[in-house]
Write a structure and sequence with these properties.
The protein has 4 helices and 40 strands. The protein has 696 residues and is mainly β. It has a domain of 464 residues: Maltoporin, Chain A, CATH 2.40.170. The protein has a 22-stranded antiparallel beta barrel. A hairpin with a 4-residue loop joins β30 and β31. 34% of the residues are buried.
Length: 696
C-alpha cells in the first residue's frame, strides 16, 4: 500500500512539473515580438537584364519617360538635360514601350502614373526588341478601355525657345489610336563666334605665305521653327503586335544671319567687314510600321517597314568688302525605303535563334546653283542577312551574331559595290541578383552619305572651298565594351564601365593648299581614329530614399591619325543631390567642363563649359510644374571652344550662344484621363528627321 501511495505521489508531482513547463512554454509563445518590416526589392540584376520598379514619388516628380529614368538614377544609364538617353559609355539606347519602338516625343507624351517597371537590356534575346544592342523597355499598366489627353509645355527664357506638345489617346478593346501635335520655336540675337584661321599657302616661287585671318560676329539673328503631326494605330494582343504610324513635319530656319569684322595679320589683305545669311527649309512625310506575330511551336516573325520622302531647300550668301560676293543655293528631294524581316525560334533551354534579312534604298536628287551649278543624282542600297544566337546557362548569358552586307553606291557615272561582314559577341554573367558583369564586341561598316560624294566645288569664303569624293567606300568600325553593376539593396547602386571605338579605312577631311587659298576635300583611307572612356557611377539614398546623391567620373582618351596626328585626354564628372518633400522635389546638379572629338571625319577637339542648375518641381496626380535655374553665376554668352590643326590650315573658334549663359526654364504637363484609362502606352512621335544629299 505504501508503495502504491509513493508511486501515485511521484506521478502527481511529475504531472505538476509538466503543467508548469507547459504554461511557461505557452507564455513564451504568446510573448509580443518587435515589429518586422518586410520591404520589396525595387531593383535587381541578372545575366540578361536589370529590372527597376519606380516609386510613386519618382513617378509623381517626372514629366516624361526620360525624366523618370533620371529620377530613378539607373546606374548603367546617363540622361542629359534635353532628354537624350545613353549608356555610361555614350552608346545610344533603343527605347521601347511595352515592347513597341518609341521615340523621344513618345516619352514626353507618356502617362507617368501608368509605368509599372523599367527594364534595361544588353543584347536581349526577346525578338520584339529587334536585336538592338542596348534597350530600355517600359512596362505599363493594362486597362480595359478609355483614354487620356496630355499637354506638355517647355519655355526657355533669356535665350528664348518654346515647345508645345499635345497627345490624345483613345482605346477600345485591343485597338489604340493616338493623335499628336507638336510645335517648337526659337528666336535669339546672341549667336556668333570668334574665329582665328591660320593659313600656310605655298607660292609659285617656292616660298610659303603665312598669315592669320581673324573674324568675329558683331550682330546676329537666329530664328527657327518646327511643326509636326502624327497619327498612330496600335493593335496589341499576346500573339500579335501591330503598329502603323504616319508623320508629317516642316522645319524652317528663315534666318541665320551674321555680320562682323575681318582682320588679317600680317596684313595680307586690308581689314574689312562681312555679312552672311543662311536660310533653309525641309519638309518630310514618313510611314513607320512594326508588326510582330507569335507563331506555333515557339516561332515568331517581326516585320518593320518604313518610308520617308523629304524636300530640302538651302540658300546662303557671304559678302566681304574687297572680295566678290558669294551666293550658293541647293535643293534636294530624297526618297528613303527600309525594311527588316526577322524570324525567331526558341529552343527552350538550348537557346534562341534569330535570323533576318534587311534592305534599304535611298535616292537623292540635288540641284546646286551659285558658285557651283549642277544636278547630282545619288543612289545607295544595301541588302544584309544575318543571324544571332542567344543562350542562358544558369547565371551565364551569351549572344553571338554574324552577317554580311552588300552595298551598291551610285553617284553620277560611278558605281561601287562593296560588301563587308559584321560580327557581334556579348558575354554576361550574373553572380546573383546584386552583381553582374558583361562585355561586348561589335564589328561593322557603314556606307558614306551621298552628301560626301559630290564633285562640286563650293566656295564658302574668299579663301575656303570644299568638295566631296565620289570614290568613297564604307569605313570599318570596331567597338569593345565592359560593364560591372552592383545593386546591394534599394538604397545603393554602383556601376563601372570601359569602352573603346576604333575606325579603320576611314574617310576624313583633308585641307589642300594652293597659292590663293584652301580646298577642303575628303580622302580615303586616312589614319585610324580611336576613342575610349573608362569610369564609375553610383547612387546613394538616405532618409527613406527622400535624399538621393548620384554622380559619375570618367576619363576620355582620343587618338586621331593622319592627316591630323593628334592625341587628347580629358577627365569629366558630374554630381547631383535630390530631395523629395511631399509633393515637392528639389535638385542641385553640377556638370564639370568637358571635351570630346567632333566625330571621326575631322580633327576638331571641342571643349565645353561646366554647368550647374537648381531644379524646383511640384506635382499632383494631374499637374507637374517645374522651374530650372541654370548657370546663374554666368552672364556672358561665351560657350564652347574648338580647335583643329593640320598641315596647311588651323582653326581656333570660340562660340557665343545660350548654351552656357544663365537660363530660366519653365515646364509643365497636364494629364486628363477618362473612362477606365488605356491599356498600353505607345504614344506616337516623329521618327527620323528630314535627310538630304546636299554637300556640307
Amino acid at each position: 500500500m505504501k508503495h502504491r501511495i509513493l508511486i501515485l505521489t511521484i506521478c502527481f508531482i511529475t504531472t505538476l512539473v509538466a503543467v508548469a513547463q507547459s504554461e511557461t512554454s505557452d507564455t513564451i509563445k504568446t510573448q509580443k515580438l518587435n515589429e518586422v518590416l518586410v520591404e520589396a526589392r525595387m531593383q535587381r540584376t541578372d545575366a540578361e537584364k536589370t529590372t527597376f520598379i519606380p516609386t510613386p514619388r519618382q513617378k509623381n516628380a517626372s514629366q516624361s519617360g526620360a525624366d523618370l529614368l533620371d529620377q530613378m538614377s539607373i546606374p548603367q544609364l546617363k540622361v542629359s538635360l534635353d532628354g537624350n538617353i545613353e549608356t555610361n559609355s555614350g552608346k545610344q539606347v533603343a527605347v521601347f514601350i511595352d515592347y513597341i519602338p518609341a521615340s523621344e516625343n513618345d516619352l514626353k507624351a507618356m502617362r507617368m502614373s501608368d509605368v509599372r517597371r523599367v527594364e534595361y537590356y544588353e543584347y536581349p534575346s526577346d525578338p520584339r526588341l529587334q536585336g538592338n544592342q542596348f534597350v530600355v523597355n517600359y512596362i505599363m499598366a493594362k486597362y480595359e478601355y478609355g483614354g487620356y489627353i496630355k499637354g506638355f509645355n517647355h519655355t526657355n527664357l533669356l535665350h528664348f525657345s518654346e515647345q508645345l506638345l499635345a497627345n490624345v489617346r483613345l482605346q477600345y478593346k485591343d485597338m489604340t489610336y493616338d493623335v499628336m501635335g507638336y510645335g517648337w520655336g526659337h528666336n535669339s540675337k546672341h549667336y556668333g563666334s570668334e574665329l582665328v584661321e591660320t593659313y600656310r599657302l605655298p607660292q609659285d616661287d617656292g616660298s610659303m605665305k603665312f598669315f592669320d585671318r581673324y573674324s568675329n560676329t558683331t550682330s546676329s539673328k537666329e530664328r527657327q521653327q518646327q511643326y509636326f503631326a502624327a497619327f498612330k494605330a496600335t493593335y496589341n494582343t499576346d500573339k500579335v503586335q501591330a503598329s502603323t504610324q504616319i508623320n508629317g513635319s516642316i522645319n524652317r530656319k528663315p534666318h541665320s544671319d551674321r555680320s562682323g569684322e575681318v582682320i588679317y595679320s600680317p596684313a595680307a589683305f586690308p581689314a574689312s567687314e562681312y555679312s552672311s545669311t543662311l536660310n533653309n527649309k525641309s519638309e518630310f512625310l514618313s510611314y513607320n510600321g512594326y508588326y510582330f506575330f507569335a507563331l506555333p511551336k515557339s516561332n515568331s516573325v517581326t516585320f518593320t517597314p518604313s518610308y520617308m520622302f523629304s524636300h530640302t531647300e538651302q540658300n546662303s550668301s557671304y559678302i566681304e568688302n574687297g572680295f566678290a560676293p558669294i551666293f550658293n543655293g541647293a535643293s534636294d528631294n530624297t526618297n528613303q525605303l527600309k525594311a527588316d524581316l526577322k524570324f525567331n525560334h526558341d529552343f527552350g533551354k538550348y537557346g534562341n535563334l534569330l535570323g533576318f534579312v534587311r534592305g534599304s534604298y535611298e535616292y537623292n536628287r540635288t540641284r546646286y546653283t551659285g558658285t557651283a551649278s549642277s544636278l547630282d543624282r545619288a543612289k545607295s542600297s544595301r541588302i544584309g542577312i544575318g543571324a544571332t544566337y542567344n543562350v542562358s546557362l544558369g547565371n551565364f548569358y551569351g549572344t553571338t551574331g554574324f552577317g554580311w552586307d552588300w552595298d551598291k553606291l551610285q553617284f553620277a557615272h560611278i558605281t561601287d559595290k562593296p560588301s563587308s561582314p559584321w560580327f557581334d559577341l556579348s558575354l554576361q554573367y550574373g553572380f546573383n541578383n546584386k552583381h553582374s558583369v558583361s562585355g561586348t564586341f561589335h564589328y561593322s561598316s557603314w556606307p558614306p552619305s551621298p552628301s560626301y560624294k559630290s564633285e562640286n566645288i563650293i566656295q564658302s569664303t574668299p579663301l575656303m572651298q570644299y568638295t566631296g569624293n565620289p570614290n568613297l567606300v564604307p569605313s570599318k568600325s570596331y567597338d569593345v565594351d565592359f560593364r560591372y553593376t552592383w545593386l546591394p539593396d534599394n538604397n545603393y547602386s554602383f556601376s563601372a564601365f570601359a569602352w573603346a571605338w576604333i575606325v579603320g579605312d576611314r574617310y576624313a577631311y583633308d585641307y589642300e593648299a594652293a597659292s590663293t587659298g584652301i580646298l577642303r576635300t575628303i580622302k580615303q583611307p586616312m589614319g585610324s581614329f580611336a576613342q575610349g572612356k573608362y569610369g564609375v557611377s553610383g547612387t546613394l539614398k538616405f532618409l527613406d530614399r527622400t535624399l538621393v546623391f548620384s554622380g559619375q567620373i570618367g576619363q576620355i582618351l582620343n587618338h586621331n591619325g593622319a592627316p591630323y596626328n593628334v592625341n587628347h585626354s580629358y577627365i569629366d564628372w558630374y554630381a547631383r543631390a535630390r530631395y523629395y518633400l511631399n509633393d515637392w522635389t528639389f535638385t542641385l546638379t553640377y556638370i564639370s567642363d568637358n571635351a570630346s572629338a567632333d566625330g571621326c571625319m575631322n580633327g576638331i577637339w571641342y571643349r565645353g563649359k561646366s554647368d550647374w542648375y537648381v531644379t524646383v518641381g511640384w506635382a499632383n496626380s494631374d499637374w507637374n510644374v517645374r522651374a530650372d535655374l541654370i548657370n546663374f553665376s554666368r552672364w556672358n554668352w561665351r560657350s564652347g571652344r574648338q580647335e583643329m590643326r593640320s598641315k596647311y590650315y588651323d582653326t581656333v573658334q570660340q562660340f557665343y550662344d545660350g548654351q552656357s549663359h544663365a537660363l530660366i526654364q519653365l515646364s509643365a504637363t497636364y494629364t486628363f484621363g477618362f473612362g477606365k484609362n488605356v491599356k498600353r502606352d505607345n504614344e506616337p512621335g516623329v521618327s527620323g528627321s528630314a535627310s538630304s544629299g546636299i554637300l556640307q
